[in-house]
Every structure is written in C-alpha cells, then in structure tokens.
Amino acid sequence: MTFRSLALSNMKGNWRSYSAFFLSCVFSVLIFYMYSAFIYHPDVVSGHILQASKIRRGMMFCLYIIGIFSFLFVLYSNSAFLKTRKQEFGLLSLFGMTKAQLRKLVIYESIAIALLSIGAGIGLGMLFSKLFFMALSVFLKVTDPIPFAVPLKAIGITGFGFFILFVAIAVLTSLRIGRSELIDLFKAGRKPKGQLIFSPWLVALALVSLGSGYTMALMLDPFNFFYMALLILVTVTIGSYFLFTQFSVLLIRFLQKRHSFFYNRTNMIVLAQLGYKLKDNARILFMVSIMSAVILTASGTFYLLQISSKQQIYDFYPYTVAVMEKGIHSHDVIDLDAMKAQLRAEGFPVTDEKIVTGIAATNIKLTRSNGNDMEYSPATMIISESDYNRLAKDKGKKQLHLKPGTAAMPGSFSPPIERITGSVQGQPIDYNAAAEPSESIMNQTNLNYMTVIMGDADYDRITAGVPEADQLVWYGYELKNWEHAGPALNKLEVSDDFIDQINRSRPDNYANMRDTSSLTLFIGLFISLLFFIASGSLIYFKMFTELQEDQAQFNALKRIGMTRQEIRKITVTQIAIIFYLPCLIGTIHALFAMKALDGLMGSSVWLYSLVIIGIFVVMQTIYFLLASMSYSKGLNRGTASA
Question: What does the buried/exposed string (b/e) look like for 119-143 if buried means 16 or more CB atoms within 10 Å of the residue's CB?
C-alpha cells in the first residue's frame, strides 16, 4: 500500500468528519471564484459596463477579506480535525511509521482535499455565476444582462491561490504532529478533566465590562464617538470572553446546587457534561458570539447607511429641481411653463411648486463668542420668516419664531454664532443670531449658496428699498417619480450663462447613492454569509473532536440502563445550548450596537434589525438541525457497535 492509497483510504474512512470541512472549503472557493469571475469579466475589464467599474475596487477588497478569512478558517478546521486522529497517528507510529512519514501522509490527504475542494468549488462557481451576474445586473441597473463568461484569469487565481493556501496549512499542521510524543498521542482524549473552577474576580470583571460597554453604547453620540467606540469594543470583548470562560462555570455550579432541578430526569447528565463542554469550547463560543454580533451589526449598519444617505439627499436637495431668477418678472434662465410641459411629456409631471422671493446680501460676517469670526464671500439670499415657515411646514421641519432684530441661518455652528452682519444694496445690516436652529429648505444655486432668515417686519423694511429688478425669485418643483427623472432633467436646455442658476442634481445624486449603497449592502451580505457559515462550522468541527469521548461516555450510560431516546435528548439539549448560546450573546451585543447607531444616525433601524435577527436565528436553526442529526448518527453508530 502506497502513501497515496493510504491517504485516500483514510479520507474514505473519516469522510463524515471530513465532509463539513470539505463543504466549507468548497463554499469558500465558490464565493472567491464568483467574485473573481465578475472582476475579470471581459466586459468589466474593457469598461463596457460602466456601472461595474465603480465597484471593482470594492470587490477586490472583498477578495482580500475572503482570502485572509479562508486561510484562518481552513487552518483552524484542519487543526481541529487532526486532533481527533491523534490515537490513529499513535497507532501508525507504533507500527513503525516515522514522523516524516506521518507528515507526508497528512500532506497527501490535504492535497487530495484541496484538489477536490478547488475542483468542486470552481465547478459550482461556474454553475451559479450566471445567477450572481443577474443579481449584480439588478443592483447595477444594467440595461443588458451581464453575459455568462468563464475568465481564465479567475480560474487561475482561484485554483492556484487556494492550492497554495491548502499546501501551506498542510505543512504547518504536519509540523505540529511531528512534535508530539507517542505516549501523548495514545493518551489524547483520555486525560482527566479536573474540577470545574472559576474566579469570582473574573466573573465580576465580566459583568462589569459588559455593563460598562452597554452603558457607554446607550450614551454614544457623534461628539463622543471617536474616544468611546474603541473603549466599548474592548470592554464588550473582554466581558464576552470571561462570560464564557468564568461566568458559565459559575452558572453551571449554581444549577448543580439546585437539587430539585439537578436531579430531575436527565438534567444531572446534561449539566455534568455541559459544564466541561462549555469550559473546553469557551474560546470557540466566544469567537462565534463576536462573529454573530459582527454579522448582525454590519447588516444593520449597511441598511442604516442607505437610509441615512437618502435623508442626506433630501436635506441637500429639498426639491427635485430649483431655478433662481434675478428680477421679479424675469425668466432669463428657462421658460418655466415650457419646462413643466416638457417634463410632463416625459412622464414626470410637477406635483408641487413653491416660489420664494428674496434679496441678495454681500459681505456676510458671522461673529462667534470665541472670537473666531467667519466671513462669507459666496452669494447670500435673505428671505422672510413666513416663507421659511411655509417651506419648512411642507417638508415636516420645525417652524421658526424670530424676535425683532434677530436673524437665523440654516445649519449648525460650533461654537454658536452671536451676530450676523453684512450689507444689502450698500446699506449695512446687523442682527443678533437666533438661538433656535433652522434647517435647509431650498436647493442652492450660485445666487443663494447661503440663506439668512429674518422676521417679516425686518425683511419688509429692508426690501422696501430694493428695486424689483434686483430682487431674487427662487422656484422649487417636486416631480412625480423623481428618482428616475435624471435623464429628462438633463435634456432641459439652459444657456451656459445661466447654467449655475438651475439645480437639477437630486435624481443623479440619488441614483449614484442608491447604486453605491445597494452594492455595499449586497457585498456586505455576501461577507456576512461567509462569516455565518464559518461560525456554524467552528462549532460543528469542535463537536466532532469530542465524538469519540462522548461515544465512550454514552456506552457506559447505556450499560446501566439509559435508553436511546434519553441519550438523544441529552445530546440534542447540549448541542442546542452550544449552538444558541453564542447566538444569543451576539444578538444582545448587536441590539445595543443598533441602539448606539440609532443615536448616531438619528434614524430607527429596529424593524430591519429584528428581521435580520429572525433570518439569522432561522439559518442557525437549520444549521443546528443538520449538525445534531449528523452528530446523533455518528454517536449512535459508535454506541451500537459497542
């Protein structure tokens, strides 16, 4: 028997344990290939698909993440699997196999799995890449679907990259095997567990760290974000680690002292084994809980950024199109009736029209309490309080109530401004700044980069001396289905002399924002899916490292009268706790993170968060059912043969 045939025989004999490792590797290769196939697609490389070129760099970044993540994931998975085979390696060593030959055997097995994973992953990637391209076409708003293609460069990078990754990991893990002594290999899995102990101080540290982190998350705002965010991350991470390594032991010891619960049916066996499982798997459960929190928080963050970006578009462009004319009866920029007729013919009729008159101000100066005054050279338009409130009411914004001799400017100033001075038609103006804030309610043009709001009496007094030909008129229009009105607005003919007096950028900016945020959400969901598969697989691999030990324990229980149904109940209960405990902790972390995001963004994401959490729980449940069935079959096979 050659080493190659021995390696293949070992793979066949341990295929149930290898299957999860193999499928996870296939999934990583599949995702990597599909991303590569898009990045190196001929139409994307040539620039034929303009929208795709915008996100190519983002997709490259995802490739790096997938590559790094795959290396760490495969490294752990391979290491966890080899731990279950220490007795097998000990037996081979006893029969005369040298350490060099053991390393060679492991490398052969790893290369075989690598070739199978790469072949299956690339094959499935080719099969599903068309669906991937179709989904990207929807997000990119591509008129013609992205054609199916099999870029040779994508195949080469995926195949060569993952082969090197598998070989490197195989060499690293084989070196660890060679350092083990024969007696240690035979005693693997039979070392006494020892007593469950915990430190009251570390338990207190866990609770204080989590409590402090959650409290700071509730207090987080834009002003303290930069120095509190890292502190929250550190405290929650420390608290989570000691929650699994110390507090879990305290909880098990507490339940063991509740005799009415501990001696009820199979609870004694469940808790006795669960205590050691939580202790042995504490680091894995800690990592999975953090990964779960990252998945849920990232998904909510992507969605919240999308909502926030849309709100920013509304704030900066309150109306779909705005026109600024100089002169009460002037229509030098564009014929407004003709514009409305053209837009109506294009399928975008005007649904709301607002007109605001004002006057131009120059040499605006803002005086602040700290002496750091601000002078504005851009054109400034003064409007009345009534006009501001009319537009603010239409947009659902807060009304202004100015006192005589005061004025306001949209925006936030830190420190706040105290006085607003300037000139109108050569005459100086000087007003106290209003304490109440105001918001942007007009699209900017080259004649109203800044806006000053005055009380009606003050405005009428200043306007009285300004000729109608020098007054400004602002027209704002809201269109039906404005999100798609960009091409129609760009068709409007405006003289180059007045091109800066019309603002029609909202649809184009919204389209760019929507494409970017949608693609970011799409990429984020793919990365989250990869993290989810990995988090479940980490638990799955760790379970199978303890399969032989559990088989021996349940064989002993079976000999003293425990039924197969009771064994299954114990097994499913323990697996459920192991699977759902980090999911629960990660969800709690994510909910506090969402609350912090609500405070930062000023938008509510709770409904979306609950949907994401629900999807996550459903997927975790599917993973749990598959894992418990597979584990129960392996356990039953071992107990039946005993």
Answer: ebbbebbbeebbebbeebbebbebe
